[in-house]
Structure prediction request, 122 residues.
Amino acid sequence: MQVAVVEVRDGVAPWPYKFQKGALPGKLLKLRVVKSWKGSFTPGNIIYGWTAGRNVEDTFYWTELGTQTIVFYPKGSPHELMACFTVDPDRIQRVSEQLDQIVGPALSSVSPNTSLERARER
Prediction:
């Protein structure tokens, strides 16, 4: 999904790779969904995430307010942002266009209320 950083603050983040060693200094993020190609998120949804400090391998570096990126969430933690699961903001347009081509008509057939409808069905 394509997200934009709407809030960022210093905080503690869990160790990467599911190590059970406590927490590391990092950034706590509030993100707004701009576009989603898969899953139940729709534009405008707010999600929360974190990234470890800059000295940790695979740290997500684009934490400035307003920065947009495309996030490919790992199965283990949908909130842990790592550089290897994101698109460099300079390449976002090209990657977005490629994902539009892959998803094609399926994207246009999803209504904005799809996640709400799924929740009601449950």
